[in-house]
Amino acid sequence: MIPGVSAVHDLHIWRLSQHKSLASVHVVHVPPEDSSVVDLAKVTKTINECFQAYGIHAATIQPEIIRPNNRQADAGRAV
Predict the structure, then answer these.
(1) Please, which pLDDT band fits residue 77 given cuts at 50, 70 and 90?
(2) pTM confidence score
(3) Distance of alpha carbon 68 from alpha carbon 11, whole angstroms
């Protein structure tokens, strides 16, 4: 579990060659109300470290940011 990440979808992992694996993922990020771009950068770094722990050294992360004060409006959005 990564703090600030409420959901993950469209996760794809594949081998480019015998020694190189790639990944792409959509991450739903719910930052604290007082957060900044730095918070998202920390979350992205943590996700990349998780991929690297499994030998995946190239990952594309698509953040989907939901602000806490907009959760009601976003609740009906299909994820």
Answers:
(1) low
(2) 0.75
(3) 24
